[in-house]
Amino acid sequence: MSQPGSGTAVAVQEETGLVFQRCRWCGTASFRRLLCPVCASSDLDPERSDGYGVVVRTAVVHRRTSLARNESLVRFPEGFMFRCRVIGTAPHLVWPGARVRPAAGTDPNTGEAVFEVCEADERDRWR
Question: Is the separation of the CB atoms in 47 and 34 below 8 Å?
Answer without folding.
Answer: no
